[in-house]
Amino acid sequence: MFKFLTKADYLLRETLLGLQRGGWMNWAAVSTMTVLLFLFGISLQSTWQLESLLNQFGSQLEVSVYLESGIEASSLKPIVEGMSGVASVKTVSKEEAWAALVEDLGISEIRGATEQLSGNPLVDELRVKARNSEVVSDLKVQLETLPGVDEASYLPEAVKRLAQLNDGVRWVSLFIIMILSLTAIAVITTTIRLIVMARRREIEVMQLVGATSVWIYLPFILQGAAFGVVGAAISWGSLISIHHFLNQLAAQQPDFIQFLANGLQLTPSQTLLLPFSLFSLGGTVGLLGSLLAVRKFALR
Description:
Strand content: 5-15%
Order of helices and strands: HHEHEHHEHEHHHHH
Largest sheet: 4 strands, antiparallel
Number of helices: 11
Distance between the termini: 33 Å
Number of domains: 2
Low-confidence stretches: none
Mean pLDDT: 75
Shape: rod-shaped
Number of strands: 4
Structural class: alpha+beta
């Protein structure tokens, strides 16, 4: 136990010493990591929020199910409600639909219009709201197979555009994450190499007294991880502050803006996953950058 504490104390002391001697290079690494992780956090959060917003808009897309003549909508409602992908079902009787149509046409005498057409020409209708835009197409096919259903229709182009936009955001976010990760690794590698070169004489003395490469260069590797962790902490704090400010601003806006703001809210799991992703990426990128930096010196 004492031996372990001695080694841990050595690593901590050498890591802090290296950070102190790094000077402005440390700030350059930390600030760069902060900016890169902040942009990564914005990208990740925007992807989640846009998917949530698309699902919220997608849930407003209804499949209109027109029944055969003589079939009441109330008889099929329980069956449709039990189908997967269905958020809610609203029944519209042919009487309600006829009254709404007559009102839209500006006809004041409903009875007269009905007599002229020898009765109500409309049929009962079900308005099925899907849980998200991705299930609307399959839901339409399932609804058309039900007995008593004459036709089911929705806005296929709108659903297609929503799905394409969702996929595009995912690919763009993945590309941004890759570019930012490579850039961060390059910055950390350069910074650690400069720090190692600045302490080259100390390293030579340690090698002469028999210190292994692991104990010589492990503090530098921990410095890279520290850059990532500090950058992640700062970027996470910035994201929380911005999110809190936007929530307060949205609360004072019209109802539609509040509707959009509700769609941009993160789920509890996403709220926990965001800092975990920032710290994981920051630590991983810092370790990779420092490992690449000391590998050249350690293999000599």
